[in-house]
Amino acid sequence: MALDFLAGCLGGCAGIVVGYPLDTIKVHIQTQDHRNPKYKGTWHCFRTLIKQDSVSGLYRGMSSPMAGVAAINAIVFGVYGQTQKFLNDGLPPNSDHQLGGHFLAGASAGIAQAPVCSPMELAKTRLQLQDHDSAPRNGNQPRFSSPVQCLRHIHRTEGLRGVFSGLGITLMREAPSYGVYFVTYEALTRSEHPISTWHMLLAGGLAGTASWVVSYPLDVVKSRLQADATAKYNGALDCFRKSVRNEGYGCLFRGLNSTIIRAFPTNAATFAVVTWTMRLLGEDQPQKAPATQPKKEEHEVFKPSSRSWNAFDRYGESSCQSLHKIGDATNGYLHQLVSASLVLMPHASATAGNEVAAVAKTASVKQFDEARHFEWAREMVHY
């Protein structure tokens, strides 16, 4: 379990560094005023931010997800790793039934990390929407220099409910998103041999892209709800209704292209780092069907039943039954003793009677079983 948490932490850090600038562009496009749009598209938004704030503007607010990436990705990969092991225990390797377990494990991981993720994304969104030389666009709030300062201000002005604004819609987004995320990666990397780094990168990028396509409309609602500092929306459902009524359903997919562009390299880096961490520490070996071991030949040694060693069986009312058992055992023992003797002395079988000759023909070439002989002798002594 500790390795799952460590791998998730390192993979999350790699993904944040690679994809954060495009995440900033996504948030700006999602939350701009539709009546007077500031950006014409992803490339125009990128050039505008670079012109206004230089490269640092693309990374504004990154300390919030970077500070929480250890906790978030440790929870995600830790919960996923343990849940999928539990759900897929006993199933044949690389079977189709395992994919359902991967989806449920991914959904469980998404739900588990949502209470940690939601406040961090709230601070990230508010920091991303701050202009370089002015206060935030929504309301007359002071400028925030760090995620902690932002969350403190929200808690002081809006209470604990304000800190967890958007938690419900975050839960609705994360469950299907992470389910698709992990099941896509597992489906693309099913192999009996270790996959290459290029295979990891391709599978991770496609998994991230698929998860965002599924959950993007919910992410738009979440971003608008968390960016709202003036109580414009009364919950996620009200935000959805007002957005669709004023802008149409197209608003739910605004900024999707920049998100997909960001999702591919971010998740490719995340899964590559996670997989290599697991592989280097020796716990990412491909699953193989257990090899069938040849069955060892077991000698049928007469062993008394568990009840035959108590006083009741030996001397009580069931002693007749015990005598029958020992009689049958003696008969079988003598039969095998004659067989073994005839094998050891082939000349004796030539002069033996018909019955003994028949026994000699069916006798296997085995040495005398001393263990069985000892068991039989011990049983006779006890009885």
TrEMBL record:
<feature type="repeat" description="Solcar">
    <location>
        <begin position="97"/>
        <end position="191"/>
    </location>
</feature>
<keyword id="KW-0472">Membrane</keyword>
<dbReference type="InterPro" id="IPR050567">
    <property type="entry name" value="Mitochondrial_Carrier"/>
</dbReference>
<dbReference type="GO" id="GO:0005743">
    <property type="term" value="C:mitochondrial inner membrane"/>
</dbReference>
<feature type="repeat" description="Solcar">
    <location>
        <begin position="195"/>
        <end position="280"/>
    </location>
</feature>
<feature type="repeat" description="Solcar">
    <location>
        <begin position="2"/>
        <end position="86"/>
    </location>
</feature>
<dbReference type="InterPro" id="IPR002067">
    <property type="entry name" value="MCP"/>
</dbReference>
<dbReference type="Pfam" id="PF00153">
    <property type="entry name" value="Mito_carr"/>
</dbReference>
<keyword id="KW-0813">Transport</keyword>
<keyword id="KW-0677">Repeat</keyword>
<dbReference type="InterPro" id="IPR018108">
    <property type="entry name" value="MCP_transmembrane"/>
</dbReference>
<keyword id="KW-0999">Mitochondrion inner membrane</keyword>
<protein>
    <recommendedName>
        <fullName>Mitochondrial basic amino acids transporter</fullName>
    </recommendedName>
</protein>
<keyword id="KW-0029">Amino-acid transport</keyword>
<dbReference type="GO" id="GO:1990575">
    <property type="term" value="P:mitochondrial L-ornithine transmembrane transport"/>
</dbReference>
<comment type="similarity">
    <text>Belongs to the mitochondrial carrier (TC 2.A.29) family.</text>
</comment>
<keyword id="KW-0496">Mitochondrion</keyword>
<dbReference type="GO" id="GO:0005289">
    <property type="term" value="F:high-affinity L-arginine transmembrane transporter activity"/>
</dbReference>
<dbReference type="InterPro" id="IPR023395">
    <property type="entry name" value="MCP_dom_sf"/>
</dbReference>
<keyword id="KW-1133">Transmembrane helix</keyword>
<keyword id="KW-0812">Transmembrane</keyword>
